[in-house]
Amino acid sequence: MSVRRPLPRWADVALLPLLNLLLALIISGAVVMLIGQNPLDALRIITYGAFGYGEGFGYTLHFATNFVFTGLAVAVAAHAGLFNIGAEGQAYVAGIGAILVGLTMDQTHWLLVLPLAIIASAAIGGFWALIPGYLQAKRGSHVVITTIMFNFIASALMVYLLTRVLKPVGQMDPTSAAVTGAGKLPQLRDFMSFFGYAPLNITIFIAIAALILVYVLIWHTRLGFAMRTLGHNPVASSYAGISNSRLIMITMTISGALAGMVAVNQVLGVQARLQLDFPSGYGFVGIAVALMGRNHPIGIALSAMLFGALYQGGLELQFSMPAITRDMIVVIQALVILFTGAMEGLLRPGLESAFMLYGARQKAAAPAGPGS
Amino acid sequence: MDLDTIISVLAATLRLTTPLLLACLAGLYSERSGIFDIGLEGKMLAAAFAAAAMAAVTGNMWAGLLVGILVSIGMSMIHAVASISLKGNQIISGVAINFLAAGLTTLLGLTWFHQGGRTPALAEGGRFLGLDLPFAFELKSVPVLGPIYDGLISGHNLFVYLAFLAVPLTAWVLYRTRFGLRLRAVGENPKAVDTAGISVVKLRYQALLITGLLCGVAGAYFSIAQGSGFGNNMTGGRGYIALAALIFAKWRPVPAMFACLLFGFLDAVQIRLQGVDLPLVGQVPVQAIQALPYVLTVVLLAGFIGKAVGPKAGGVPYTKEN
Fold first, then answer.
1. Distance between CA atoms of B264 and B244, rounded to whole angstroms?
2. What cellular component terms from Gene Ontology apply here (chain B) (predicted)?
């Protein structure tokens, strides 16, 4: 038997993920049919809801902003061979930083609030990821298990803080006080009425900057090179004189800091207060986004848009097809994770054979040169 | 604290421990064979829904249990195909299974039963009720031992007894049978098992079959034994606590029981302690107790109290050399 040739690069980075996505969507379509609805109608409504008009598109971009942050968080860790399942918890605790800056600086100017909120959220989100990183690096605990545990610890901590500490006296709801002045970040709709009431805000530019910064970090800096080396071969990186344990801690901190940006977007950009469970699953979607996007910023931007569209379109779908709730999006997300992540090996051998066959036929069709 | 209170807290502990224990043992089979399983939660949730749906439609608890088990095994087999046959990433597969269950149970629940994601309350015969052990009533008047027998040991449903019976059974299978020996070996050194002419793939599939079975029972417990009908996200993260207990027990069956009992006890106490002033410490925030299993697991994993080292081959797909 001949040795399998690897796929051409374009097929590996674009065709295979697209085929896997298609597979996930086909099965999602089957689920839609199972609950007695027309999947093509559903797809049409989702597409229109997500891209068809200004406000819908604004929401799509807003959701995509969150997914860029969590997708990058998962991807940065993945480059160093670490699986950060804790983006959800890291974004959650980062909310403390965002709201404290927002409340204390409420009387100043948003130009002051934004950078400070970014720093505070990044610091707290990064710290929440640094602990699992430290435990992995110095004590050998598996970062996957620790980050899962830290999601739950974060959740308990935040419930405690919101019900006992941050809640204003005399208020029933477990939320913090609201920011009303400079703490509320500028909305894009104030400049472009095109976006209707969509909560798209200045944070989207932070997301774009984060995409570029991560690209530069991973592929054009010493640190990024060291991270990728660690991810490919931890033994090699330690022989190359890189301190693996330091690198793990730095990587996890960056990862958590990126996840923390969700807090800036949600807390100061949309809700204007700290609410219970405000990351509502964005951290977990980041896993799917990073997998779909092959841990590359361009891929992450595209898959963040895809999931943003699914989230917004899914909301729209709920109005026109009440049978299909937001949970359909969770199903699609699960199938995308399954096929592009865990079952990647399903289509690859077939695709490789197809390419080899195609390649062989091309060779046969070409006129035989000298020496062949 | 009088005897009645203690007995009722301990009885609640047993009821809350049951699903943890079943899921924990489920995870034990999988992880001992070298397959990480963070999808315990998803399998339980799917089983809870399937069992309640079937029991609601047929009015038969056994049919419910059977379908719950089948669905859980089905999901376990997805995990098996992804992580054994396709050599995919076991963590990612587990994450996918958890989301799949979370999404599908709510979605199908809404469209099939139109009760906001709940399944209809189960009628007589659709649900496993408490079993009165012999002489529970007669012995009730015996001081101390009577109430303990009647209130703590008797009166639970079948699943509770099954879960605790599964502990010695698992210990026996793991340490006294040929299958158990091979299972432990395949999690530590699959190559050695392969060299001995035993199929690594088959062993791991068998292990995941048992994992599916036990998760199915655990899930059914939620909806057709402890509760009456399925509610949204009914398992509430118990699958992750079971995973924590498994690590806490260092992947051994009898310690797994004690870890689950500890976490079950914390759960029972937390319900009791809401709004109660304790001497010296004052009111303990409920959240602190809720977070305790996770904190304890992190501390243990970090080697600050003992050291938890999992099966060596865990998480690594086995590729046979040619």
1. 12
2. plasma membrane
